[in-house]
Each structure stands twice: as C-alpha cells, then as structure tokens.
C-alpha cells in the first residue's frame, strides 16, 4: 500500500507571524534583506548574494531582458527563459550584461531610404519621438543621422519622401565615442544644448543613445545586483534536453548563473545534467528543481546543485495538481526542504540555499516564505503585472490587465519537451490575464517596505535572524475571516447609494 505522510499539506494562507520584541535599533532603515544565492561554506561569503531576496520566474511572460534589468537594479535577479532558440536566449543575456545606466539601446530605428510615412508608423509603435537613421535600420547599424518628430510635420512634408531628406546627417550631428562616461555625456548634452547624444563605436556603428533626463536615474538604485565589473547580474534558465548546446552559448554571452527549469527535478535526467555541468563548468553556479520534500532536496544537493527550487503545482497559472494529482502545499514543502537543507549543512559543512517558487499571492506571503526558511523567492504572476514584463497590456472595463500564461500551456509552445507534435495532449498551465500594476521599481519598493515592516514587528534585522526567531501560528477558518476588513468600504458604500 502507498505510504501516507502524516502531516497535512499546508499553504501560506494558513499561517500568520506572531510579533516578537522589537528593539529601538530595529527599524525599516536598519533591516538588511541580503541573502545567499548559491552554495557556500557557512561563515564564508557566497560567490553570489542578493541584496533583495527576489527572483523572477523562468517564463516567457515574465523574464525578458527589460524585466531582468529592472529587477537586478533593485537588488534581485531574473532567470531569462529558455523556451526560445539558443541564439535568442544568448542575445537576451548579452542585452542585460551590456546594460549601462543612462545608455539606452535605441528602439526607434529606420533606414535613410525609408519613407517619412514609415517613420511615423515606427514612432507610433514605440511611442518615442527620436529615431536613429542607420544603414541597415537596426539599433547597431552604421549611424547616418538622427531624426526627431520636430524635424518634420506629417501635414507639411510629403510622407513618401525619404527619411534622409529631413534627418540631421552624421557630419552635422554631435556624437560621442564608446568610451564616453555618463557624466561626460551629460556635460556634452548640457554644453551643446542637446536632447539626445548618440554613442558610436570605432567603426561608426550605433551603440547607445544618452538622454538628458536619465542622468539622475542611477542614484535611485543603491542596491543593484552587479558582478565584479559592475555589470548587472543575470541568470539563465536551462532544461534537461538541449543543455549541452545551450549552456556554452549562454556562458559565452555572459550569464552569471544557470537554473534547471522543470516541474519535477527529482529525476535522473536532472541528476545527469547537473553532473555534466559540474564536470564541464565547475565554476558556474547552477540551481536545480523543483522539489517539494527533503528527499528531493538531498538528491539534487548531492548531485551538485548550488541552490534548489521548491514548489510543485502552487503557481497561479498551475493546473498540475488538477491534471496529474502531483504537488504539495507550498508552506509544508518549504518547511520540509528547509529542514533538509539545515541537516545537509550539519552533515556536509555546506549551505545550499533554497528558493520558494510559485503561489505567492500577497506581499506578506513572501515574508512567510522567508520566515519558513526560504533564502529567496521566485515569482511569476507578481512580475508579469509590471510594465517591464513582456505580456501585452490590454484595456478592460475594470482597468488594464497584462497577459500571463504558464510554461505548461499550449501558448508556451514547449512541445519539443514532450515529443507531442505541435499540440500538447494535455496542458499543465493556463493562459490568462493579471491586473496591471505599473512600474516595477515602484511596485517592488512597496513590497520591500512591507516585508521590512513585518521583520521589524518580528524584531529581526537580518533574514538569518528572522528565520531563527520567527514564530508562526496556524489560523482557523474563523480567524482567517477575522483577518480581513469587516465593514463596508467607503468607496463601495458611496457607489451603492
Ligand atoms: N513548478 C511547477 O509546479 C510546474 C512548472 N511547470 C513549468 O512548465 C515547464 C515544463 O515543465 P516540465 O513538463 O516538467 O518539463 P521537463 O522538460 O522537465 O519535462 C518534460 C518531460 O520530459 C522528460 N525529460 C526530461 N529530460 C529529458 C531528456 N533529456 N530526454 C527525454 N525526456 C526527457 C521528463 O521526464 C518529462 O516527462 C517548465 O517551465 C516548468 O517550470 C509545469 C508544471 C508545473
Ligand atoms: O503547473 C504549472 N503550469 C505551468 O504552465 C507553469 N508555468 C510555470 N509554472 C510554475 O509557476 C511558477 C510561478 O508561479 P506564480 O505565478 O504563482 O508566481 C513558475 O516559477 C513555475 O515554477 C507553472 N506551473
Ligand atoms: K520524479
């Protein structure tokens, strides 16, 4: 007969934190959210740590280069998704590694022989009014000039004229070489009263644009995740199918670390792949997962995983539990795996961080996951809501939504993984919408403020202290009701009258 685990499988909603004594010196200004990302010897500095314990899900609707840049600037890290051709994923890695604050990759580009009508269309699509004119019409082609919406008027100038007739040609255009620093670029912008300064390489190919307004931007981000060369850090998702071809290209592009992405990491496929990575690239950290218990954790930690991801079936787009009956309440899974991690540390002298992946619905769920032992969290739905996520933003009667779909859905087109032709026999994820939440920088700052406030109530200034001293209580159905507002809200009441 099958073995039945005596403990009930529990989720985050079933728990609350009890306040601990808060000392005067423990405040939201002094709370430190630093956390290890990879395997290390306790007491020694891990090769990579995060200043904010957030990673974005390895999903097409979530981890694009734009989102990775924004998240790394806020102290977290993205794992760029791998459900794209190897060269596209490598290009995405390069885009993040080449990011320089204030140096923008031009997204509004035309060729000199394109018509003004085409330019109007490109500007409408990108929403930008400054366009680079390059030989091949790409963001890195040889720069021939610049054209802005001030250079022509759709009613005054025939729209079938070529762009070259209205552009400022390169010979008359102030521009800078690629070695220019941000402060030098800004000095030039102000001295010459420019709005935009193009930066070109030694062959005259466009590299970046610098705009005046971006100068102060960098000062907003004191906790960026950067490597030894001050470039933003970025991770890359990999799978157990094409890793031998994919990994070399990702590392060549500059990926800082890798993570196997699977609904079920407790498999010989993943153990063999981890062994291969550790043999060929021993210096590159690589995570494994997903697992939901100590047995799965030990299997991956012993195979060489540098961190282990926890969570099966709890994600907001997940239907794995409905479809296959596989999974575990996320709170129970995290606590079980955290206990195994601590036992592994006692046994081997090595600390293998764990990540709580999926099912975090409220900001306080992040605090709960951390209190329960997660070193960091991974979120999909949360990040998919922001401007920087790749899903389209669509208007509805009740405000804007963003598209969000699971990697196990038909839309994700992961067919090669299952040998199922061009359609899945059954889906393990849904394709839907999430409420739009604006700019990541503002949204994440709010979440961080709440988590710090929770930690202050629990009297903890660091995450290890929080994990060691947090006290959790299970909530009954009745006390869960009590946790929410029990009056008619002013807004709703007013409209009801
Ligand atoms: N965390 C979660 O609860 C869930 C996550 N997902 C997401 O959906 C996506 C797909 O996940 P999976 O279906 O687990 O993909 P997967 O690629 O890990 O596994 C797909 C199938 O391929 C098999 N397989 C793996 N490596 C192989 C190889 N080298 N040769 C032949 N067969 C091999 C596996 O045993 C499995 O049957 C991922 O992005 C995952 O994160 C999907 C469902 C649940
Ligand atoms: O059952 C599933 N079907 C899917 O199609 C799917 N796609 C992603 N994932 C997993 O969900 C995590 C993100 O969860 P959240 O949106 O709740 O943050 C992710 O990080 C994944 O672990 C899936 N699970
Ligand atoms: K398995």
In short:
This is IMP dehydrogenase. The chain is an alpha/beta fold and 497 residues long. The chain has helices at 65-73, 86-97, 116-126, 182-191, 243-253, 268-280, 294-302, 320-324, 330-348, 363-371, 381-384, 440-457, 463-469, 477-482, 490-496; strands at 15-18, 35-36, 49-50, 54-56, 77-80, 103-104, 109-110, 130-134, 143-148, 168-169, 176-177, 196-200, 206-211, 235-238, 257-260, 286-291, 307-310, 354-357, 376-379, 393-396, 399-405, 431-435, 471-474.
Describe the structure.
With 497 residues, this protein is an alpha/beta fold. The chain folds into two domains: 12-101 and 223-481, TIM Barrel; 109-220, Roll (CBS-domain), CATH 3.10.580.10. The chain contains 15 helices and 23 strands. It has helices at 65-73, 86-97, 116-126, 182-191, 243-253, 268-280, 294-302, 320-324, 330-348, 363-371, 381-384, 440-457, 463-469, 477-482, 490-496, and strands at 15-18, 35-36, 49-50, 54-56, 77-80, 103-104, 109-110, 130-134, 143-148, 168-169, 176-177, 196-200, 206-211, 235-238, 257-260, 286-291, 307-310, 354-357, 376-379, 393-396, 399-405, 431-435, 471-474. Strands 4-5-14-15-16-17-18-19 form an eight-stranded parallel barrel, surrounded by seven helices. Helix 1 runs parallel beside helix 2, helix 7 packs across helix 9 and helix 10 crosses helix 12. The longest helix has 19 residues, at 330-348. It binds 1,4-dihydronicotinamide adenine dinucleotide, xanthosine-5'-monophosphate and potassium ion. 1,4-dihydronicotinamide adenine dinucleotide binds at residues 58, 239-241, 261-264, 267, 269, 290, 311-313, 315, 318, 320, 358, 407-408, 414, 417-418, 428-429. Its EC number is 1.1.1.205. It catalyses: IMP + NAD(+) + H2O = XMP + NADH + H(+). Keywords: CBS domain, GMP biosynthesis, Metal-binding, NAD, Oxidoreductase, Potassium, Purine biosynthesis, Purine salvage. K(+) binds at residues 313, 315, 318. Pfam families: CBS, IMPDH.
